[in-house]
Amino acid sequence: MRTMSVLDMFEFKTDEETGTLPRKEARPKTPLSQIETHEGQPIKIMTRNLSVFYGINQALINVTMDIPQKAVTALIGPSGCGKSTFLRSLNRMNDSILGARTDGKVLIDGINIYAPGINVVALRRLAGMVFQKSNPFPKSIFDNVAYGPRLHGIQNASVLEELVEEALKKAALWEEVKDRLGRSALELSGGQQQRVCIARALAVNPEIVLMDEPASALDPISTAKIEELIHELKKNYTIVIVTHNMQQAARVSDFTGYFYLGSLVEFGTTKKIFTTPDKKETEDYITGRFG
Amino acid sequence: MRSMSVSHPTTHELLSQKGFRLKEWLIERMLVAAGITSIAIILLIFLFLFKEGVQFFKTASPFDLIGKTVFDPYEERHVFKMMWQAVSVLPKYSLIPLICGSLLVALPATIIAAVFGIGCAIYLSEMASAQLREFLKPTLELLAGIPSVVIGFFMLTLAASFFQGIFHTKFRLNAFVGAVGVAIATFPIIVTLVEDALRAVPRDLRDASYALGATKWQTIWDTVVPTAISGISAAMILGFGRALGETMIVVMATGKAPIVTGNIFSSVRTMTANIAAELGSVAQGSEHYYALFLVGSVLFTMTFVLNLTSEIILTKMRRKLRM
Fold this sequence. Notes:
- The structure holds two protein chains of two kinds.
- Chain A is of the alpha/beta class.
- Chain A has helices at 8-11, 15-18, 83-89, 120-126, 141-151, 157-170, 174-177, 190-202, 220-233, 246-252, 270-275, 280-286, and strands at 43-54, 57-68, 72-76, 100-108, 111-112, 127-130, 208-212, 238-242, 255-260, 263-269.
- Helix content of chain A is 34%, strand content 23%.
- The longest helix of chain A is centred in the middle third of the chain and has 14 residues, at 157-170.
- Chain B has twelve helices and four strands, in the order ααββββαααααααααα.
- In chain B, strand 3 and strand 4 form a beta hairpin.
């Protein structure tokens, strides 16, 4: 399977799902390679004045953020600060929440994913997601990983086998499960289940992997494995990770954003945020004086 | 300032206080008693049915329950007949026509109710808006509240003629008419149980499916329904048990002819209809009386096994979903 390019979002059949194609001006004006941050990293995801409302509650207030390509960006902040909401708005998972409304823009490779005519199915293929609680389907390990490719129409058994093996290898799980792919994924340990979920997300060849506290329910050894994996994955993927654990953010991420009460307080390289943050609030949170 | 004259109990005094509370003790015992009573009642019914049923064998052989070789005056020879003909010079107590009738009504009824019920449950749990569901659920519960005699009456008077008009059947009252009536009675149970099973599928799994780019339909068919499949099967088995036990509708709408047949448009007599029709007019302690208890025992065993199976499946599913 070839790697998915962002333009595939428009090549997909979108008629019944979403209607018309986006207008021309929604396409990137500047080629991706020319957009760069202050750190010299090209930008993968840009949000511009992103606000999310649940009914009358505003969960996210005018967040403007540039997420670099092929790097790990950590989102930290106290519970209820909007970091998960932000993460879920990057692949429009908030769409399925009743009464959720999004304002502003999220641009992936310069394309606004909230523009009319965007194919949400293709978007989610581009930006996979790993959840807080490992949530493998009550199916075999193989069927779990093959779920995504099958959804997108791959039926050929040998192609599927290849994809599953590749994904499990990327998720550093292949050696542990290669002899029992037919067994239920629920028989695995918590850490292994979470890696099945990661493999499942990787099997559709995304460019972006969104992780919502992927290790919060795991023991220290499994957590270490997941962190190692994240480190490995950033060579090929743009990773955005929400975490409660500040040491984890410091260990795995290259960039960190600190959220508080729905706003992005500060964003910068992890080194800077953890050593010389610009804002007093950030420093207070990092040093544990608050939160 | 707080007065210091209140003496605080020592740790020893505190811990050796009597922790006994009469009211709680009584309530606890009453609840235990209530639980035991219901189990006891079931056991007693079970025992009573079997005690009476077994006495049939005092006078008859177990083979009589399958059929009897009798002289057929028309063919002028002895033939083996599977008949229920309890009031006769030579009574025949074959259970085959009754079991056959019960299955011929209950199976199609379950299939009809399942097709509509599962569809309806998927709509209710996955697609209907909250307001619509709030309207539809009570309506369905109302359907469950229709007395079966009313459904039977409706099938007997209106629906039977309607179906005869469509299918041009020989007999106006037949297994199919009964099955449709029983399906109406079973439908709300299946909808409720299937909907429970679907809603028990964790939101995480749906999210995971959506996050992989699945559409709503793909999520329903590839994740929600397969995850809930044991609950759905349990609902169908329970529905089948209810359909087997349904009495009033089949008494009124199936024609009550105890015939061994596979034709769904033939008149049939179910085990329940047979008991309902005959037990009132039978001499207590007669062979016929015991035979009817035997029919009851068979019916009870069948529904008991079905309910037990469905309960086991449900327990396994709950464990699987870690609920």
